[in-house]
Amino acid sequence: MRYFSAQSAEAASEALVSEPGNARLLAGGTDLLVQMKSGNLNVDLVVDIKNIPGIRDITAEDNGFRIGAAVAGAELGEHADVCALWPGVVEAARLIGSIQVQGRCTMAGNLCNGSPAGDSVPALVAANAIVRIEGPEGSRDCSVLDIPAGPGRTTLKKGEILTSIFLPARPANSADAYLRFIPRTEMDIAVASAAVNLTLDESGTVTSARVALGAVAPKVLLVDDAAKAIIGTKLDDAALAALSKACEAACNPIDDKRGTVAFRTSTAGVLARRAALIAYDRAGESK
Amino acid sequence: MDTGQSKREFRYVGTRPNRPDGVDKVTGRAQYGADMTAPGMLTGAILRSPHAHARIISIDTTAAEAIAGVRAVITGKDFVRLDDEFTRDVQENCMAREAALYDGHAVAAVAATTPVIAKAALAAIKVEYETLPHVTDVDAAMKIDAPVVLAGRALETVPAGMSQNVTNACEFGHGDLDAGFAKADLVIERSFKTAATHQGYIEPHACLASVTTDGKADLWCCTQGQFFVRTLCSDIMGMEASQLRVTASEIGGGFGGKTTVFIEPVALALSRKSGRPVKIVMTRDEVFRATGPTVSSSMDIRIGMTKDGRITAGEATLRYSGGAYPCGTVEMGAQAAFAAYDLEAVRTYGLNALTNRPKEAAYRAPGAPQAIYAVESIVDELCQKLSLDPLAVRLQNAAKKGTLSSYGPTFNDIGLVATLEAATNHPHYNAPLGPNQGRGLSCGFWFNFGGNTCVSLNINTDGTVGVTEGNPDIGGSRASISLMAAEELGIPYESIRTIIADTNSLGYNDVTDGSRVTFSVGLATIKAARDAIGKMTSRAAQYWGIDADAVKWVDGSAVPAGSNAGKFPPLTLAEIAAMSPQTGGPIAGHHEVNVDGAGVSFGVHLVDVEVDPETGFTKVLRYTVFQDAGKAVQPDYVEGQMQGGAVQGIGWALNEEYIYGEDGRLQNPGFLDYRIPVSSDLPNIETVILEIPNPGHPYGVRGVGETPIVPPLAAIANAVSRATGVRLTELPMSPPRILKAMKG
Amino acid sequence: MKSMHISTTINGDPVEFICDPGEPLLDVLRNRLGLTGAKEGCGTGDCGACSVTVNGRLVCSCLVLGAEVEGVEISTIEGMANDDQLHPLQRAFIDGAAFQCGVCTPGILVAAKALLEKNASPSDEEVRFWLAGNLCRCTGYDKIIAAVQVAAAEMRGA
Q1: Nearest residue of B to residue C102, measured between CA atoms
Q2: Structural domain tally of chain C?
Q3: If you count residue pairs, one on B and one on C, with CB atoms under 8 Å apart, how many are there?
Q4: At which of C58, C77, C96 does a domain end?
Q5: Distance from CA of A244 to the nearest CA of B (A)
Q6: Residue B142 and residue B196: Cα distance in Å, rounded?
Q7: Contact A26 C65 (CB under 8 A)
Q8: Whether C73 and C95 share a structural domain
């Protein structure tokens, strides 16, 4: 195996393209090194992207924040403005692993790992975050939702590198929230998860919403019916019940060592309801 | 009760001094199994079966041997087939011979100059397997047509006509069951299952072996018993015990799981073949797949009770599986099941069945938590249905001095009633509960062991003392041993240093197990100190020119026994030690004994939980442990045992389990999905130590380490059942199981 | 596969080493530099026994490559005491019997020190969540939490 510390996105891309064997990107490494340790992954080339200028920065742009692909969870959590604007995204990113893992893990890596259970992914989808990709054919932007292709797979083409995630600015009275279910209080992979992002009008009625679910299908789900169930409501009991029901209907989970189909399905509905209430309270308090 | 011990005033025993290994352990200096190196050392690595059950047709190691840097490759054929079944099972568990019996079973090993080369060499070994039908569930293994794991291993006690997988059978009890059940107003019968769990020590197994061409060997390893390692390894390797010196490193947790060998014979064989020192360190994956979990169990329990709370009869059938080799752990379960109760009619039956799982290794009170979980669950349900106070019912039926125990012996002084009374009077028991909350309790029991023990105690000429004992210190025992030596000798704790000897430096000591060390090694230390005191009083008598009988030992000094003996100022230990070269030479005390008289130990745990009715998530809100320690020598470490055992039991109750797939492979061989409790899962674990002296120990000490893992399983299950209104009968009570039970 | 030559700083000392490109920092510390205080309990970031700090940030050294630490500052348990003066956390752990086997202790001390540098007055719950990535199988965590609080109080007073 070889290690290459790329000094630019172009250099990283070129290294990926020219490697005949198995090349992998290294940002936080909290998934990659585990996979290498397990012996299931033989890597010929590791391309470290952390030394690419700007890739560890959080940058305020006109219409939001750009989060570099190598920004660690702990660093994200220390950025007061991002925390205020996207509390659900930050809380989701902060749930990945332990404090130790937080010192290294990145949202971009969480997304590119392709796990349907990645904690930050539903929150990013609910936030309608946009990723920037550098590749052999130049730069392009796309929706987070378009990145996962299935368990362990992404739509990124050979030589493409996700360099940043853009969290858009948004109107007053908006907030998001993320909840996951794990059997312990920490250190587990989500058995089911839900992110809700919503905006209220002055009267407290939901005017727009996005609801995303994790760990209940081969890839993250954006559940339009769940959003519709709460748009135009003040999250009364009937709206919340409809939200849960829409989420349950969208689930297509597997039975495995972490949970059953029935458990994942019902829990996704419960979490979506609870996350909606948290987001609603936050939106009411936000300006 | 009149042992005289309860009146004894202690000067050092019962205090909380710092442990002698403390600074080493907070500075990273302490040397654990993986921390030792030797010049020219090779890295050993082991190839493991990916199949649950497979015949090994051939192993081709030529490609591996051809890799530069590979110095030795071995397979099962490099070990002699042993006649003794017990040791042969241990050897074949370390390295399979004809068949791989479980996912993770070792089939070959290499020694190479670097870890990277060793890994490449493993990948180059070609094993041809013929896969065989497998069975991993204990009930399935008991079926007459089940795949046979090992044939012809049933003991004579096993009834005819059972599956060949059934290897052990036992029965305990007394009285007329039919008459007992006839007297009951309510009889409840239920079946229970518990998953296999792992000890979960944070330090993986590690060893360094160095065999020289003249047949001498040194082995450094993390173990609970260096002498037993020597016995096993010298038998497996065909060596004389004197030629194999085993040194126990600091040990990073064991809980019973490091009472046998897994990699040590492999490292020795690789070292012998390569002529170089070889170190093997297991990965966590290997620890889960190939070292001892507990038994898994399936149990039927029937208990009858009168409406005023008297238990009239109890019956239990326990089916345990200790994995791919015969296992007698079910006997301890069958003995322990009803130990907390004074019963007129009680019967327990135990059966062990082979399954394609790793060979069971001891785990803290092996066999007892499962059986007592099932019994205590039914006792709780009887109390609930008869509207009786569960603590009062346990007090009413509690075993006490003179009770004919369910497993045969009649109890001497025991502390069950005292612990139950302490729980009854504790504020926890009557604290208010909120919605979705429940309170559970359970009794727990462990026999405690004594066993072969040997201690040397050397009086240094400057008046300090070195104690040499032979049991690895797994939870602070060096401090406790030093305290008992200080107490007996009458010198400060700080003047004593206790070390753990290698196998050449001391006589044989049984493994650190059965909660035996503070009790047995403590007893031998006290007796060794008395031996040294006898020599010191003789020296003083000699110095004073009086009879040795006329000198006694008081507060660390020799003094004339009475006014008739003469008027001499006291001679301190330091003064006697300083003049020892002139009075006959060095002074040392020794004691060698097979200790009897370990007092049994009882505990009671109280727990409050809250269960999320929508997800089945259980939060442990409050937890209190009550236990009889006989005499708490260093109370910090007694509390530590109570807290640590309770938390292991909490993990067992809620989330820990070996999960096997249809393919018979272990699905969760890592700390990510084998979910031991993390700090944020837990409340403080409050402890209440009772001291009902054990008549079998000079200071009244009982073992305390194992009992605390026994009650949590039922205590949590009873709390969850009361919080949710449904009885759960399978462990772990993971959220999907609880939610499913609640939804009916 | 060619080894890499890395220059870095460990516990304030300049250090150079060579390592395989895929070799975790933990293996470098333990096998190449003789710093065996960090332990491998899992190698997958689940147990925290290998905790160190890299440029002040708490990490699992099993999840960092040796190749990545060129020019950074690493702190390990071996650098926690100030010459012959134990850190207040180290003293509190000994005084409070906050370990039994002690194999998780180096990682817990490094993690707890990082916590107290960030939050001098954590609640018990904050300590418990901060240390959730440090598995201890012996103690049930009770005395660990208490010892961290004793050290925190002492450090606030100092």
Answers
A1: B25
A2: 2
A3: 180
A4: C77
A5: 12
A6: 17
A7: yes
A8: no
pLDDT digits (tens, 9 = 90+) for B351-370: 999 999 999 999 999 999 99
Here the tokens at position B655 are 């989330």
CB atoms within 10 A of CB B425: 11
The domain in which residue A261 lies consists of 174-285
Q: What angle do CA B424, B426, B429 make, to 5 degrees?
A: 65
**Does residue A223 fall inside a structural domain?**
yes
Chains touching chain C, criterion 3+ CB pairs below 8 Å: A, B
Residues C63 and C112 in one domain: no
E strands, C20-152, are 51-54, 57-60, 73-75
User: What's the token pair of residue A49?
Assistant: 């992207």
C42 lies in some domain: yes
| Same-domain check for residues C97 and C69 | no
Q: Is residue A159 part of a domain?
A: no
Give the DSSP per-residue string, B24-69: HHHHT-S-BGGG---TTPEEEEEEE-SSSSEEEEEEE-HHHHTSTT
Q: Looking at the predicted structure, is the pLDDT value of residue B2 above 80?
A: no
CATH number (domain holding residue C121): 1.10.150.120
Domain of residue C106, residue span: 88-156
Over residues C30-51, the mean pLDDT reads 98
pLDDT tier for residue B9 given thresholds of 50, 70 and 90:
very high
Tell me how far apart the alpha carbons of residues C100 and B512 are, in angstroms, rounded to a whole number. Answer: 14
ipTM exceeding cut-off 0.85 for this assembly? yes
**Contact call for B681 and A184, based on CB within 8 A:** yes
Same domain, C104 and C124: yes
Using one digit for the tens of pLDDT, what is the confidence trace for B95-144? 999 999 999 999 999 999 999 999 999 999 999 999 999 999 999 999 99
pLDDT tier at B586 (50, 70, 90 boundaries)? very high
CB contact under 8 A, B678 and A38: no
pLDDT tens profile B177-210 = 999 999 999 999 999 999 999 999 999 999 999 9
Residue pLDDT, tens place only, B229-243: 999 999 999 999 999
Between CA B285 and CA B257 the distance in angstroms is 15
Taking a C-beta distance cutoff of 8 angstroms, is the pair B322, B360 a contact?
A: yes
Q: How far is CA A116 from CA A113, A189, A260, B343, in A?
A: 9, 10, 15, 55
Among C49, C77, C105, where does a domain finish? C77
**What does R_g of chain C's alpha carbons equal in angstroms?**
16
Q: What is the rounded distance in angstroms from the CA atom of residue B312 to the CA atom of residue B345? A: 7
pLDDT of the residue at A286: 67
Query: What is the pLDDT averaged over residues C21-42?
Result: 98
The CA R_g of chain B, rounded to the nearest whole Å, is 27
In tens, the pLDDT along B672-712 reads 999 999 999 999 999 999 999 999 999 999 999 999 999 99
Burial of B120 (0-12, 13-18, 19+ CB in 10 A): middle
Residues from chain B that touch A260, judged by Cβ atoms under 8 A, are: 736, 740
Share of chain B above pLDDT 70, in %: 99
* Domain annotation covers residue A238: yes
Tell me the H-state helices in C16-141.
Answer: 25-27, 88-95, 105-118, 124-130
Domain of residue A221, CATH code: 3.30.390.50
Pair C48, C93 in one domain: no
> Could you tell me which chain C residue has the CA closest to the CA of B686?
C142
Burial of residue B24 (number of CB atoms within 10 Å: 0-12, 13-18, 19+): middle
Q: Decide: residue A277, CB within 10 A, 0-12 exposed, 13-18 middle, 19+ buried.
A: middle
Q: Given CB atoms, is A40 within the 8 Å cutoff of chain B? A: no
Residues C17 and C67 in one domain: yes
Best mutation site among B114, B117, B618, B678 for testing chain A: the one with the most A CBs within 10 Å? B678
Nearest to B202 among C1, C27, C49 (CB): C49
